Structures are given as C-alpha cells and as structure tokens.
Amino acid sequence: MTVSIRPPADHDDPRAGSMGLGFALGFGVMLGSALLSGLALFAISELSSTVAELLAWPALMLTPGAMLALVVWAYATGRTRTGAGILAAYGAMFALALLLVAACFGMLMTYH
User: Would 12 be classed as within a structural domain?
Assistant: First the structure.
C-alpha cells in the first residue's frame, strides 16, 4: 500500500494582504475617525441642545462604523490577513482602554 503525501498548500498568497498593514490601517482609521468625531462634536456643541442631541449619536458612532466598514471591505476583497490585522488593532485599542481604566481605578483606590 502506497501513501502519497502532498506538499502543504501555499499560505503566502499575496492577495491576502498583510497583518501589519491591517494593524496600521486599523490604528490609523481609529485615530483619524476619533479626531473627526471630536471635531464634529465640538462643532455640534455650538448648536441648540435639541439639535446637538440628535446629531451627537451619529458623530459618536463614526469611529466604530469606520472600523466595521474597513473590516468588511478587507474581507470582501479577499484580504483576509489585512482584515485580521484590523481586528487585532481593534482588540489592542480595547485592551489599552481597559488597562488605562484599571490603572485609574488603582490610583483612586490607594488614597482612601
């Protein structure tokens, strides 16, 4: 009985993009859209309170919406590694925010 062994499939598909590019794109889009969101909220705050309340939610959803659109674009065009890098950047930003919140609570709890 002969068993033929096939070589592994080539995982270096250049069309899949790169994880580093996805990570850089993720951070760039997240920081850029957060800046635009902040500027939009600053401009909205000058309006009347009713209009400002209506326009504030779309401005706050700009960052998560931009990240989601970028991930969908990456996976839809076949750039799976780039999409994974974008998701990794999103996770890193979430972990960083969680770490900063924990550090602030740690500083507050030491002075009682």
Answer: no
